[in-house]
Amino acid sequence: MIEISGTVYAWDDPVVIAALIGAAIVLLVLVLLTLAVRRAGRSAEAVNFVASQMGRLGQDVQTLGQGQQTLAGSLQTVSDTQAQAQVNAMQTMEARLAQVQAQMAERLADNAMRSQRAMTEMQERMKESLHGSSVKTTQSLTQLQERLATIDKAQTNIEKLSGDVLGLQDILSNKQTRGAFGEIQLNDIVSKALPSDAYAFQHTLSNGKRADCLIHLPNPPGPIVIDAKFPLEAYEALVAAETKDQQVRALRDLKTAVQTHIKAISTKYLIEGETADGALMFLPSEAVYAELHARLPEVVREGFAARVWIVSPTTCMATLNTMRAILKDARMREQAGEIRKTLALVNRDVEMVSERVGKLQTHFRQASEDIEGIGVAATRAGKRAKRLDNFDFEELQDDTVVPMVTAKD
Length: 409
Fold this sequence. Notes:
alpha/beta
């Protein structure tokens, strides 16, 4: 910005640009003259030339002075025009500002009213929401308390179950208690599948060995022994094995344990003439039974060869149901004579019933005939009564009149 005589001009104003161009031309001419004087200092021609150029320069300077005066007048005119435009613009701006201020005041008042109404509605909604939230919170807290009570009960049950599991682990960790556990499970399955006189627990054989359970089957096959075994240590080692070597060792230990049990059962409980030629080894775990058939099928085949059949709780129940059918069939054969006698008595009773039915039919036929005769007699009596009701005494002849006998005193 350039300020001249109290007027401010911008650098991009045309007047300022023209003045700058003129000043640049004068400066360039002076520089050229100076160079020309230095170069032509030794010759008169150069002096004459410089003199002529100085004369021209004076004329140009005079022309430039006139141009500056004209430029000053133009600048004054532009300054006045700009001042008047600024005054008009200020007046217009003040009017516009006043109008804008009025509009802003109206809008602010309107916005204030709207904000007040919105705040009021929001307060009401907040009150309703808070009330609803308080009700829902109360309900939620009530439900939470109920659920906490349920969780407390569940926690109590879980603690109790944990104690039971620990107790079961204690039981299974001891060989004697583990054997008792298998025997109890076997007793429960046998007592549910067979009648009470078809088995005996802890039965002592002639060789002095005590069997966990002896099923009294008829010959053949004869009484069969069920012995409970539980190779838990080897199975747990197999389950806990992480490497291939550990699995191989655990499978070998499990195979050895089961083979030992098979050999013991075949040696102790297969007595010719006293027991059947086979026995059952009861495993009280479906997992161990499945593991044997999945990974050690050769051990199962060894049991078949030794006449020892390995059963789980499920297969044991199925086997016992088959035994119950055998016992039922044997008892039916034992009671065949009594059944024949009973059938003969039943046949005699049926014959007596048939005779009684025949007699009863005869009585029914006679009663039907009597009822039919009574019906015929009643029909005749009705007809005669009707005829007497329609009888006309005046149409009777004199000879038909029966004299009435007067009773004597």
